[in-house]
Design a protein that fits this description.
Elements: H1 8-11, H2 14-67, H3 70-74, H4 79-88, H5 90-102, H6 104-162, H7 168-216
Helix pairs in contact: 2-5, 2-6, 6-7
Biased composition (Basic and acidic residues): 12-45
Region (Disordered): 1-45
């Protein structure tokens, strides 16, 4: 993540440093794979939502075709008024009853798909939250280590300057490099805030989805 100027990192055995880099590299790779999988799942859920909408639209179009000019006349009627109107138009009533019966199976299919869609959406949101939490832990650990190393490096450089081990000029140069590293660390802190915000939004969305599920049951 961040390079340090003659810090404890350089003093560690090469094998340990190499292993740590490999571990971080593997963690990044795994998180990237999970993010890709989540994107693919999101697209699949989106496609299912479109499929359900199209199926409902088709049913509505069929019903409107049966209603014809009656649709406009029945617009704004109360249930009682519609009942009375259909009684006065027995042919229309018969056609609507036949349509309702023929569309029963299709409506059940749409209902089943809607339940499946909602469950998948809830699971996808939960998985995204878990992935973000994993990424948050990863970033926070790296930031914590980075901050710790910066403080140790600052103290070490100051001690070296005071002991006359490095000149004032060398101290200023090294501190300038350290400042650049601190700026990089701030960018990582910004990522942490972004991930935290994503987790909060995800949890709020999950609460809404759970609330809708309860209302539909």
């Amino acid at each position: 993540m961040i390079g340090f100027i003659g810090t404890a990192h350089a003093q560690k055995p090469k094998e340990v440093a190499k292993q740590r880099k490999e571990t971080i590299k593997q963690q990044k790779k795994e998180m990237k794979v999970k993010r890709t999988e989540m994107k693919e799942k999101k697209e699949q859920i989106k496609a299912k939502k479109t499929e359900i909408k199209e199926a409902k639209k088709e049913l509505k179009a069929e019903k409107n075709a049966i209603l014809g000019e009656h649709k406009e006349k029945m617009k704004g009627m109360t249930p009682e008024e519609k009942k009375a109107y259909l009684k006065e138009n027995p042919d229309l009533k018969q056609k609507l009853s036949a349509f309702k019966e023929s569309a029963k199976e299709k409506r059940e299919e749409i209902k089943a798909k809607r339940i499946e869609f909602k469950n998948e959406k809830v699971n996808a949101v939960q998985n995204r939250i878990e992935n973000k939490k994993e990424r948050l832990t990863f970033l926070e650990e790296r930031n914590s280590k980075g901050t710790d190393k910066i403080e140790k490096t600052k103290n070490r450089l100051l001690s070296q300057k005071e002991a006359g081990e490095i000149t004032e000029e060398e101290y200023s140069e090294k501190m300038a490099k350290l400042t650049k590293i601190e700026e990089k660390l701030k960018k990582h802190e910004s990522r942490v805030s972004k991930v935290k915000s994503g987790i909060t939004k995800g949890e709020e969305k999950l609460l809404k989805l759970d609330s809708k599920k309860e209302n539909n049951n």
